[in-house]
Amino acid sequence: MSLVGKKAPLFTAPAVVNGDEIVESFSLDQYLGQKEVVFFFYPKDFTFVCPTEILAFQEKLAEFEKRGVAVVGASTDTEETHLAWLMTDKNKGGIEGVTYPLVADTSKTIANNYGVLAGDWDYDEEGQLSFKGLPIAFRGTFLIDKEGTVRHETINDLPLGRNIDEMIRLVDALQYVEKHGEVCPANWEEGKDAMQATREGVADYLSKH
């Protein structure tokens, strides 16, 4: 079930911030009323596609920050594993240099509440609780506005990496809509025409394009 239009699920969990500091009680609540948040899940530390995405977010971090947007990552690994990966050189498969927070969802409840857990708990024929599927997160990405409402979500299967520039485009679209009260048509980018959400507005836009 989609979270779009709903409040982002609340959580408090350990995280690594600034690339080198473990905090025990991290929450997205700190951004309410202050910043939009791009909150993304990735499957596992010390893997292959994941560092390319995490480092790509870091490379574009200044673009998010100049738009007043916080970037936060999460996986089901421990905070200690996050820290070890952050301390590992990129040439050795690490993500050294990443400064935005990485949340440790070891209970898997955050991934479950956001609908990105790649499996579920069930009882077998003997009545024993077991996990069906993979106890890690899909590549879920959520754009959360300043009021804590999810405005966009995408969920990629494990082998499919994200497009970070698309997230920046969506941030621009959200901020444009909130500022101007217009809507953004297909393939809209910053600097292009938007349109009024009326029949006349659509007709005017289409006549010019």
Automatic annotation (TrEMBL):
Q: Which organism is it from?
A: Reichenbachiella faecimaris
Task: Show the PROSITE patterns listed in the entry.
Answer: THIOREDOXIN_2
- Entry's PANTHER family? THIOREDOXIN PEROXIDASE, THIOREDOXIN-DEPENDENT PEROXIDE REDUCTASE, MITOCHONDRIAL
**What are the GO cellular component annotations?**
cytosol
Where is the protein found, in the record's own terms?
Answer: Cytoplasm
Question: Catalytic residues?
Answer: 50
Q: Which GO terms describe its biological process?
A: cell redox homeostasis; cellular response to stress; hydrogen peroxide catabolic process; response to oxidative stress
**The protein, known as:** Thioredoxin peroxidase
Q: Name one GO molecular function term.
A: thioredoxin peroxidase activity
Keyword field contains Disulfide bond? yes
The UniProt keyword set, sorted, is: Cytoplasm, Disulfide bond, Oxidoreductase, Peroxidase, Redox-active center
Out of the domains of life, which is the source?
Answer: Bacteria
Q: What family is reported?
A: Belongs to the peroxiredoxin family. AhpC/Prx1 subfamily.
| Residue intervals of the Thioredoxin domain | 2-176
TM spans (from-to): none
Q: What does this protein do?
A: Thiol-specific peroxidase that catalyzes the reduction of hydrogen peroxide and organic hydroperoxides to water and alcohols, respectively. Plays a role in cell protection against oxidative stress by detoxifying peroxides.
Q: Does the UniProt entry include the keyword Iron?
A: no
The main location is cytoplasm
InterPro entries membership: AhpC/TSA, Peroxiredoxin, Peroxiredoxin_AhpC-typ, Peroxiredoxin_C, Thioredoxin-like_sf, Thioredoxin_domain
